[in-house]
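User: Hey, quick favor. My workstation is busy. Could you predict this chain's structure for me?
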Amino acid sequence: MSEAMQDSRLQERSEAGNFPQSEVMRMSKSEEKGNDRDREKDKVESMEEENINAALAEMAHTHPETILTRQEGFDILMMRYDSAIREVRTKLEILNDELSVKGDSNPISSIITRRKKPQSIYEKLIRQGNEITVASIEQNLNDVAGVRVICPFMDDIYKVARMLAQQDDITLIQVKDYIKNPKPNGYRSFHMNVEVPVFFSNEKRPMRVEVQIRTVAMDYWASLEHRMKYKKALPLETTAAIYDDLKKCADTIADTDAKMLQIRERINILEREHKTTRLDERNERPDSAVMYK
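Assistant: No problem, here it is.
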């Protein structure tokens, strides 16, 4: 074989042998790039997980009530409390409508409802030393669902409370009469914790509701006092003086409620006397026998 032919075959073999080697090298570089991408992806995912954990830790610090809201069954329980509020409100509205039709003055001026916020629920469970669970809410708290009834006069408060408690599907749990026994700061209101049955798709469930009953004047005072509780930045001597004035206002309001009740009773007596007088005058008229046969 000539030297030229041998050199040609050696070149072909060399080229043939080099081809697989170069391909392997290219695949190796591709795999290396893929590995780099995987490492970058893992790094990003790891950073994202750290960010998520940091966000959750921050949320748990700034909003500790998430311990409750993230538990299974929390939203269902809150829905049940909302349903119980509607049940009690409907009962009160029916009673008020009935008395209005009968001619009695309406004992209810307005009805305000509210469900306790998750943060308030969490804080109360902590204060009472209870477990932070959904079951603990239902077992230990009576005021998650709230209904506030505003009445014109003090005697209307007890009338409404009596009518509500007498209903056969209402169970009276507890009564706190802060009208006869005001709080030291002057707060006055009538509180009653009741249990009302609520019918759902597959069960009847007793739910607890706190009913607060007060006059318009009591409610006005309580609203101002509640706002003062959260004025933390004010100097202590300033808030102390304000609370002293609020206590005096509470006493003045109580006296005003009592006087307004007395005035209403005097008006009722005068109305009855006026009706009696007019009836007597009609009966004394000569044609009364014809008119009132």
